[in-house]
Amino acid sequence: MHIGAHVSTRGGILTAFDRARELGAEAVQVHPTPPQTWRHLHLEAEEAQEFRLRLASTGLADRFFFHAVYLINLGTPRPELLASSEASLIHYLQLAGELGVAGVIFHPGSHLGQGFDTVLDQIGSTMRRALEAAPGEARLLVENSAGAGANLGATLPEIRRMLEAVDSPRVGLCLDTAHAFTSGWQLTTEEGLAAALAEFEAEIGWDRLWAVHANDSKAPFGSNRDRHENIGEGEIGSEAFARMLADPRLRRPPWILEVPGEERQGPDRVNVERLRSLAGLPPLEPQ
Hints:
There is one protein chain. By secondary structure, this protein is of the alpha/beta class. The protein has one domain: TIM Barrel (Alpha-Beta Barrel). It is built from ten helices and ten strands. The strands form two sheets. It has an eight-stranded parallel barrel with strand order 1-2-3-4-5-6-7-10, surrounded by four helices. It has a two-stranded antiparallel sheet with strand order 8-9. Strand 4 (103-106), helix 4 (116-133) and strand 5 form a beta-alpha-beta unit. Helix 3 runs parallel beside helix 4 (116-133) and helix 4 packs across helix 5. The protein is globular, with a radius of gyration of 18 Å.
């Protein structure tokens, strides 16, 4: 099993490797560009080559992910926003392919009151065009939402239908534990977890679970609010994480922390160690 973290790229994308090493992260997620802008990342040939070399030397190639910008909305009725969303997905997928990164995780957006059925074809066709424009092996991972307002992908049937609408082996799921909890997965009981995993197997299938965002929740069960908390310090709790981490189906994909950290500066070594302990993994080597 591999436990990692979202790390900053402040100072350049190559800095992610050193930050990951400091945290003891065995899987990595980064924002290549500021998540609140449409900015694209353009690397010089030397920098791109150095990235590929460091990716190979660290063994992270199949556990290094980009997280797309938060502006993307595949359910929008605005043509200009849809075009920008598609262009951003294409850029991130092309960048992932160029650098050898495993895939791109993204939030599909909101139907803004139009209804899920109304925007489903648009979602599928947009993702399909993005994949066609960026051929290669880089994958596209839909992240489940907490379900606030008209957000897309809060339920497994919605996610299944989105995956079916794209109909590509390069599209799968990144499961966020905090989002799942506040959207209705009762993770704090043995019965609740069993029911959730049975639904997952029926609706999605384990072959499409490619990453887990490991987050405790500051918001209560079923609240549809997206507020992350450190592992064991939120409403989900350590016991529930230990139960999840004991399931071999959930241990297969990499777990990536997106927690606030003990100093509220983002994922830290404390939370990596905490999750490793709950998973029954040996402690990290001293720095």
